[in-house]
Amino acid sequence: MAAALRGLAARWLALTRRPRLFPWDRAIYLRKQRRAQLRSYRVQAEAERRAELLLREVIGERAFGEMVRRGYLEVGSSTFPSRVYLVPERQGPVTVCENGRPVMRLCVQTVERVPDYDSVVMHKLMIEGNEREYLRIANRV
Amino acid sequence: MRAMANLRVMSWRGDTKISYDVRKAETGDAEQIAAVEEAERIFREERARGATAFRVDGDEAATRIDHFDRTAEQIVMVPRIAGG
């Protein structure tokens, strides 16, 4: 019985024991981790750059400049003539204005994470081309 | 119809751009026929995953499309959305 328990304990220890890192191993591990982190930053920066190019193409240079200055993009409603949607430059709730006055805030996001400027493109396209579906999905906040 | 058209698919990596020349494809250019077919395949795949497709032509307002439109200057595919 005791031998069986000792055997089980030894097996458990063998399974759960983490290999000891020597200082040089640790240095290699940290260097690899730092490289992975830098790679991830580069991928993120590249994604943001591409998203900015797409947004500039979709809304035009002038509207892009205005959006950066104001912090939001104005998108007119095709269904309700007096309505304007203010889409924030960074991901966040969209303010709905009617006759120049804010009436509600809507929260809509992509299921898959996308860069901030891609999110602005998503709001603009959905409002222009699929407003009813956009309003159906949106949560009022 | 412009010669070069683009299909742009949004993802966490920014957008992926697939360019194809419909005119050359119509004249029988094998490379461009393959490019158009590949764009159509990606379009169908993304639609099946719940993405919404929009036709974007210059300064005109975007329009939603359900089928691959060869005459579109640019098609942008937005991933599935949900209320936040």
Question: What does the model show?
Answer:
The complex is a heterodimer of chains A (141) and B (84). Chain A has 141 residues and is an alpha+beta fold. The longest helix of chain A has 37 residues. Chain A is elongated. The mean pLDDT of chain A is 91. Chain B is built from two helices and six strands, in the order ββααββββ. Chain B has a five-stranded mixed sheet. In chain B, strand 3 and strand 4 form a beta hairpin. The longest helix of chain B has 19 residues. The mean pLDDT of chain B is 91.
| Strand residues, percent of chain A | 15-25%
Strand content of chain B: 35-45%
Shape of chain A: elongated
- Give helix % range of chain A: 55-70%
The number of helical segments of chain B is 2
The average pLDDT value of chain A, as a whole number, equals 91
Q: What is the terminal-to-terminal distance of chain A? A: 64 Å
Helix content of chain B: 25-40%
Largest sheet descriptor of chain B: 5 strands, mixed
Number of helices of chain A: 5
Oligomer: heterodimer
Can you give the mean pLDDT of chain B?
91
Helices and strands of chain B: which structural class?
A: alpha+beta
Q: In angstroms, what is the radius of gyration of chain B?
A: 13 Å
Radius of gyration of chain A: 26 Å
Low-confidence stretches of chain A: none
DSSP, total strands of chain B = 6
Strand order of the largest sheet of chain A: 1-2-3-4-5
Measured by residues with Cβ under 8 Å of the partner chain's Cβ, the largest interface is: A-B, 37 and 26 residues
Strand elements of chain A, count: 5
* String of helices and strands of chain A: HHHEEEEHHE
